[in-house]
Amino acid sequence: MTMVFLNKEIRDGDNPDLTEERKTATFDTNKMAEVIYGSEKLARRRREISQAVSLIPELADSKPLPFLSRNEKILESTRKVTALNEHLPRLINMNDEDEAWHIHSEVIGFEGNPLALHHSLFIPPLVIQGSDEQHEKWLGRAKRREIIGCYAQTELGHGSNIRKLETTATYSLSTQEFILHTPTINALKWWPGALGKSSNHAVVVASLIIKEQNYGPHLFMVQIRDEQSHEPLPGIAVGDIGPKMAFNGADNGFLGFNNFRIPRGNLLNRHCNVEVDGTYVRPPHDKMNYAGMIRVRSRMAAEQGTFMAQALTIAVRYSAVRRQGFLENKSQEVKVLDYQTQQHRLFPAIARSYAFIFCGFETIQKYETLQNEMNSGNVSLMADLHALTSGIKSVVTYQTGEGIEQARMACGGHGYSMASYISEIYGCAIGGCTYEGENMVMLLQLARYLVKSVELAMRGKPGDLGPMVAYLAYPDIKVDLVTGPEAYVKMFQHISKRQSIKATEKFHRKMESGVSRDEAWNQCAVELTRASRLHTRLYIIETFIRRVDSIEDLSIKMVLTDLMNLHLNYELLDVASYALEDGFMSSTQMGFIKNQLYSSLEKIRPNAVSLVDSFQFSDLQLRSNLLNFLFQVLGRRDGHVYQNLFEWAKSSPLNQTEVLPSVTQYLKPMMEKAKL
Ligand SMILES: CCCCCCCCCC/C=C\CCCCCCCCCC(=O)SCCNC(=O)CCNC(=O)[C@H](O)C(C)(C)COP(=O)(O)OP(=O)(O)OC[C@H]1O[C@@H](n2cnc3c(N)ncnc32)[C@H](O)[C@@H]1OP(=O)(O)O
Ligand SMILES: Cc1cc2nc3c(=O)[nH]c(=O)nc-3n(C[C@H](O)[C@H](O)[C@H](O)COP(=O)(O)OP(=O)(O)OC[C@H]3O[C@@H](n4cnc5c(N)ncnc54)[C@H](O)[C@@H]3O)c2cc1C
């Protein structure tokens, strides 16, 4: 197989409709990939990795995954991930997390696998919260995969409110051990990925109790299964929680402790400690133990952006080969991509994918700065990044869900088939609204920060506002949108500022009327979450503009400017009512935004296929290749969907026999009986 990524290069046998699309593009997809992934080297490495993977048959799915049972899915994902591990040192730079993420998502796909969280949720907290001595003890073993781990925080009864986790770790002065205990059924750990059947270690989050005083959630390294037999250790109850909406190649699990003892040295103690005599050594920041969650959230914008991009690649390519209905020319049906409604469905979501990826790379860098600062004892950046990533995580997951669902509908009936792969992408991505902090809960975390910032501005201390919220103190000056992106930013700033102030004032009025602080907060919560969303969407817009400004290549800059303008107009239109309400936006401006939006759709149209080709997902990654094996088929780069859909249907286990037992056992007797 030849892997070809240059949009202008035409491959023999490709669907001519797609070939035509690639010819009309005004830019080079390899160059665009450099912008998406950050550099020529990073984009090239991805291509090289995809190429290398495509040449190793054992890394491909051996069967279409939707036809497998849960056990078969777990077996298949484990087969692939262990085979992959054998090849990894040859295929990627083992110290490069992005390369690791890329190759895993290519080979494993969205079904998950028993090692996914080992790398993304078990090793990172060990790195962040473990001391040098603890790294010495466990990190090498974890990295070599001598042990497999997971992150066990959420319980049956509590996920969002970590302070109320019921699993206890009581320090025993006499034995210098922690006694882990699950006092009630609600306290069972519930959800951790790879806990159910695969892990033999876990980073467990439990409330630390010393001399009957509760010091809140802390992280402990816990061995849960025997390294030889893989049986649960005495005092441990562990198992799988059953099938989920997606991610069924992974074994999310439950875990209970019956007075299970671990050594004092198993408290991850880089930033806090319990001395032999039970003295508690505080961390430099109250929420230091939550740092790992900031890390995961900081990666979610880029992650979710690529999830949406995959669904869009499938939907846009399919829309370019699907012909149905007529426009002017009645002799040939049109590509459904030519319908304005189809473009309106798909193109703003393409823009959001780019926006999320650009924003995501910024937040990942911000987290790396935070981590370096934390390592040298400076925790002053934590509050800002916590607020920012709480908002971003919530907005991108929700909008990604919307975008993927639009992609599914854009594929009509075939989008509803699992052959499209979109339902699997959706099921996985939409989980992001819940995991790593339920969206409403996280929006309310950002709202705390916004309310405090508004209060500072109200107290006449705008100088104390960080750069992210400085606009909350800006004066209102009317803007002319014709002047370009800066005017859009100012309009958005006004909207966001006004909503933050309105919500804060409402909150203050409630308290002044005698309502308690917590109750007043709850009575303003919807308004507060609106403020958080607006603030976050403004931030995403600004990162998009910054990124486009930084581009030197003219052909790339032009198409990304079209995409950015589409984003600006789509976003502003979506929230226009906030600015119409106080007359900051006129109805003429509203009409202008709509017209700009429609003209952006037209400008994007010739580049649509190449904009999604630029993500350079391989057919394997989209589960769309049908070489020696049968896979999902809708997003194929070559566009040959119909014959492959037929192959897919033929491979259904139901079609392996002409007459099913359901017919012989039930339908046939029913029909016979009816004849009597
Ligand atoms: C390399 C190889 C890779 C292989 C990859 C394979 C890839 C395969 C393909 C990919 C396919 C799919 C990928 C899908 C992956 C799925 C992964 C799923 C992972 C899910 C993991 C989890 O969900 S783990 C559990 C997460 N849980 C949560 O997030 C819980 C949410 N709750 C909280 O965080 C907290 O309870 C809270 C923040 C909401 C509240 O905490 P608390 O009650 O303690 O605080 P208060 O509200 O009272 O606030 C007090 C002040 O503290 C401030 N605060 C709070 N948190 C922080 C913080 N983190 N940092 C700084 N400050 C913080 C808060 O702001 C308050 O401040 P003030 O207002 O100033 O008082
Ligand atoms: C696919 C997946 C993988 C996961 N992996 C892991 C893992 O590896 N390790 C792990 O420890 N956990 C994991 N989790 C658990 C996950 O982190 C929690 O489910 C998540 O944090 C939400 O908590 P919850 O389930 O308690 O939701 P709840 O808090 O019970 O949410 C229910 C509803 O209550 C609302 N609500 C709750 N509190 C408030 C509030 N203060 N104000 C307003 N509304 C509120 C929410 O908005 C929501 O609408 C995973 C979950 C999923 C879905």
TrEMBL record:
Keywords: ATP-binding, FAD, Fatty acid metabolism, Flavoprotein, Lipid metabolism, Nucleotide-binding, Oxidoreductase, Peroxisome. GO terms for biological process: ascaroside biosynthetic process; fatty acid beta-oxidation using acyl-CoA oxidase; lipid homeostasis. FAD binds at T154, G193. Pathway: Lipid metabolism; peroxisomal fatty acid beta-oxidation. Its cofactor is FAD. Residues 290-451 form the Acyl-CoA oxidase C-alpha1 domain. Gene3D superfamilies: Acyl-CoA dehydrogenase/oxidase, N-terminal domain (1.10.540.10), Butyryl-CoA Dehydrogenase, subunit A, domain 2 (2.40.110.10), Butyryl-CoA Dehydrogenase, subunit A, domain 3 (1.20.140.10). It is found in: Peroxisome. The active site is at E436 (proton acceptor). Transmembrane segments: none annotated. It holds the Pfam family ACOX_C_alpha1. GO terms for molecular function: acyl-CoA oxidase activity; ATP binding; FAD binding; fatty acid binding. The keyword Nucleotide-binding applies. Residues 485-672 form the Acyl-CoA oxidase C-terminal domain. Residues 28-148 form the Acyl-coenzyme A oxidase N-terminal domain. Its main location: other. GO terms for cellular component: peroxisome. Belongs to the acyl-CoA oxidase family. This is Acyl-coenzyme A oxidase. It comes from Caenorhabditis brenneri (Nematode worm). The lineage of its organism: Eukaryota, Metazoa, Ecdysozoa, Nematoda, Chromadorea.
